[in-house]
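Please fill in the sequence for the structure shown.

STRUCTURE ENCODING:
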């Protein structure tokens, strides 16, 4: 006898609540179909469901996300870096206290106290017919952040070595919930032939019908839940083995929205607006925000960053601020609205010649107009760079493009090419190749759990409040 096992999953939802009623509509219909046919099914999430870019997640520190997954009957989730490093230790420790589902993350460890009650290293699911499914969960080891929050993420291969062999002896099927990214998923498939299925996330890759490496099926459903993942495993009871593995990612753009979920989200938004709506400062005049011009607010915020981190200098890009602020009472909700990014302050060490190259790069047209997506940035373009502690002299080429003539520290002090300086900035620039000198710096000190918007709130209170 053959039996089909159904798994539905989401990954990298990033609090895209506008899409959630369609997610609910799809999953409720899928659940109804599976129940009608008597098929075993489960619903998983692969991490980064929470993203504090949305005011509902900001106001509830992710507990609203957990409630929404409860409402849809999720069975099992793992955590992503947005759950892991954008919440304080205490907020993550209690994030899943009211979860009706299990949380499996095999490589996350609490440093300074006992593990939270919800944290499972592995999970074993058994069907009514006796098929045992072992589940491992892994999250990406961003320990430069985790260690500052009194968590630690152990190496993924160490965790797999510990748990795959154990599950091999006690289960029929092994599934990995991987918030590691596509390249790591592929390497794991090459190394661990006993893993039957890897459901992935983190790098927002979309595998419409999966990918097979070394008999392991790899799948993922993009980002923001524009697609829902489905896996169908066919188990042969007579031969005691899997005989077929199928993966699909379904575009749910035309799926009808679930009305009950829409109502729940409306109520959540009302509560969030009320919680974030307490005034933090009163402005006599509106504050201008411009992405390609120097502004007072960005200058003051950059100065705050320099003073708060006690760095030699600081730099922030104008694209961090998304909108103006009107005169009158300003709430934390307003601060979140114009600076929604889960971006932390960081101080890096650069030699004088590297710092000069960073300044020059920041004034290029291509850099300022880059439409950035990811690395914590939730805006549109990088925008013009503002500096604190540094004076930059620029001129213009015949084609109208700006370039750096000279850069010195305040007081006219020149950069010393081989001297090391501390530079405060947004942690966005420590990733990728946006500013290679910053990304390559061997010394990076991140500040957690503070976001740049916390410094923005302090700047408004200290520099713009009506006296």
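FILLED IN BY: designer on duty
SEQUENCE:
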């Amino acid at each position: 006898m053959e039996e089909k096992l159904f798994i539905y999953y989401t990954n990298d939802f990033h609090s895209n609540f506008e899409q959630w009623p369609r997610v609910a509509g799809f999953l409720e219909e899928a659940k109804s179909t599976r129940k009608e046919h008597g098929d075993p099914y489960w619903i998983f999430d692969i991490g980064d469901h929470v993203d504090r870019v949305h005011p509902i997640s900001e106001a509830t520190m992710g507990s609203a996300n957990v409630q929404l997954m409860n409402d849809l009957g999720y069975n099992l989730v793992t955590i992503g870096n947005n759950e892991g490093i954008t919440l304080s230790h205490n907020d993550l420790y209690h994030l899943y206290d009211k979860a009706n589902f299990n949380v499996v993350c095999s490589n996350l460890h609490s440093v300074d106290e006992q593990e939270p009650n919800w944290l499972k290293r592995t999970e074993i699911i058994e069907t009514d017919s006796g098929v045992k499914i072992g589940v491992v969960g892994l999250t990406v080891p961003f320990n430069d952040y985790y260690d500052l929050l009194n968590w630690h993420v152990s190496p993924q291969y160490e965790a797999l070595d510990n748990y795959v062999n154990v599950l091999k002896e006690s289960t029929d099927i092994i599934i990995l919930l991987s918030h590691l990214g596509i390249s790591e998923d592929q390497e794991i498939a090459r190394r661990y032939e006993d893993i039957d299925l890897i459901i992935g996330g983190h790098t927002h890759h979309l595998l419409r019908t999966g990918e097979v490496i070394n008999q392991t099926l790899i799948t993922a459903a993009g980002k923001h839940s524009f697609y829902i993942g489905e896996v169908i495993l066919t188990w042969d009871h007579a031969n005691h083995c899997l005989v077929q593995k199928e993966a699909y990612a379904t575009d749910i753009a035309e799926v009808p929205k679930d009305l009950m979920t829409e109502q729940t989200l409306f109520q959540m938004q009302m509560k969030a607006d009320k919680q974030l709506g307490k005034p933090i400062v009163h402005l006599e005049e509106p504050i201008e925000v411009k992405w390609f011009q120097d502004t007072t607010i960005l200058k003051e915020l950059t100065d705050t960053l320099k003073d708060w981190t006690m760095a030699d200098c600081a730099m922030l890009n104008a694209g961090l601020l998304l909108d103006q602020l009107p005169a009158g009472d300003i709430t934390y909700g307003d601060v979140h609205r114009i600076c929604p990014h889960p971006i932390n302050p960081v101080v890096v060490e650069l030699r004088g010649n590297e710092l000069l190259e960073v300044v020059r790069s920041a004034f290029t047209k291509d850099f300022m107009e880059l439409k950035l997506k990811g690395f914590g940035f939730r805006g549109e373009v990088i925008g013009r760079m503002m500096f604190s502690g540094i004076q930059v002299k620029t001129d213009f080429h015949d084609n109208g493009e700006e370039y750096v003539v000279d850069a010195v520290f305040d007081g006219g002090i020149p950069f010393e090419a081989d001297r090391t300086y501390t530079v405060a900035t947004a942690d966005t620039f420590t990733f990728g190749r946006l500013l290679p000198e910053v990304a390559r710096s061997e010394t990076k000190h991140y500040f957690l759990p503070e976001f740049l918007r916390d410094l923005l709130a302090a700047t408004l209170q200290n520099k713009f409040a009506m006296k």
